[in-house]
Amino acid sequence: MGFTVVGCGRYVCRGRRSLGRRERAREMDLPRKSGGIKMKGTGQVTEGMLYYCCDVTGYISKNRGGIEMKETERIKAGLLFRPNSMELRDTKHKAHETCRLVNTLDEYDERTPELMRSILGSIGERFYFQTPVQFNYGIHTYIGEDFFANYNFCVLDDADVYIGDNVMIAPNVSLMAASHPLIAHERLGLMLGDDGLPTIAENAEPIRIGNNVWIGCGVTVIGGVTIGNDVVIGAGSVVTHDIPDGVLAAGNPCRVIRKITEADSMKELAREE
Question: At the top level of CATH, which class does the domain 86-180+187-270 belong to?
Fold first, then answer.
């Protein structure tokens, strides 16, 4: 049967051929420049034995059942995936083109709400986007009621992004669910593209934002982070760790400054003279 192997960030061995008896019976130590994979033959090699070696050692193009995994399945499983695959490009293209159109419309154009609904996983009845706005997939983002996003809201929703009710987003906020391997030669070469050549490797982790959250201007939220309910994130923060309920948090990296209490109330300023 045929197989495809890619080593640790370098193109190692790619071909389609049948394994001989001796090859099946002995360990195969594949040549490599860095990293690489070792496979042990145990008699007859079947498709079910050719499994994704998707740890730091490399990648094989079948799962345990011999069935090609979809890139969306790899994302959900927390595995590296190919963001340039045709499977994902079509979805991203729809989101990109819809955002491009929305960003050209008058801010009160009646088409905007339905256009945004057409690309998002879900969103409440009441919401407003101050354009420009950009989603990478759209369908991976789920937004609650009474949502407001100011200028330049950017969401790389390569993994799922959950936003609760009554959330306010200040200008220039980025939700970055996507990431790449830290080792340089793994970012391009660990995986094969649709054309059989080395391509970009990516991983993604979900972002969760609770209810009644205000995210200040210029904030970046990294994949894998959960922000609790009733939270304020200060301007310019980089949120790399979970934030608990009911706090003011700020900084790079973002950290809890203090609890939000009744002493922070501004209701006196709302009174009528």
Answer: mainly beta
